[in-house]
Design a protein that fits this description.
Order of helices and strands: HEEHEHEHEHEEH
Number of domains: 1
Structural class: alpha/beta
Number of helices: 6
Strand order of the largest sheet: 1-7-6-2-5-3-4
Strand content: 15-25%
Distance between the termini: 38 Å
Shape: globular
Helix content: 25-40%
Oligomer: single chain
């Protein structure tokens, strides 16, 4: 799959600008998330560099035959009906796995939104794992994982710093009108 992924990225004009995250467990922020194609391109990228990406998927989608495809693609089933226990489920995944590179889109939707979800912040702090910046920049056609951010106890301040990082980088979504940084940054 590695070579097929490299070929597909090359033929569609994407430039890979990094490799696999250098730690066994982490959260990788995928920004901007404006299209379902973001997942496809990101998955191809991580497979092309030899990584095994993981994402969270509602457990209701793990029925036959979807279950096999989702497992192959690194999906982790989460029971969203249990509310706060979803956080416990995810932290337990980090405790029980030797390697887990969990991709999360903090926007939480492909629709325009200035309010990003903070679940990744809570997961990172409770599981004591780092958070990495990733970009799928449709403007430059560049994709990669670029650096990490040291989180504090102040989630709002951390969100502003993360949004500022993406603003400074000048990333463009597949649908630019759907990428809103908010908080005076857009």
């Amino acid at each position: 799959m590695r070579y097929i992924s490299k070929f597909l990225l090359w033929i569609t004009g994407w430039k890979v600008i990094s490799g696999v995250v250098p730690v066994p467990k982490c959260i990788v922020l995928g920004v901007p998330h404006t299209s379902l194609w973001d997942f496809v391109v990101s998955w191809l990228f991580y497979k092309s560099v030899g990584g095994n990406p993981n994402i969270l998927v509602n457990k209701k989608f793990f029925f036959w035959p979807m279950r096999y495809l989702l497992n192959y693609m690194g999906a982790i089933p989460v029971d969203t009906l249990k509310g706060a226990s979803s956080l416990k489920q995810i932290i337990n995944e980090f405790k029980t796995r030797e390697v887990l590179h969990l991709a999360i889109a903090p926007e939480g939707t492909r629709k325009p939104t200035a309010k990003w979800k903070g679940g990744f912040h809570a997961i990172s702090r409770l599981a004591k794992i780092p958070v990495y910046f990733a970009v799928f920049d449709w403007g430059r056609k560049e994709i990669g994982v670029i650096g990490t951010i040291e989180l504090t106890k102040d989630m709002e301040a951390d969100m502003l710093r993360i949004k500022q990082w993406y603003k400074t980088r000048g990333v463009v979504g597949k649908h630019p009108e759907k990428f809103i940084l908010g908080d005076g940054l857009d």
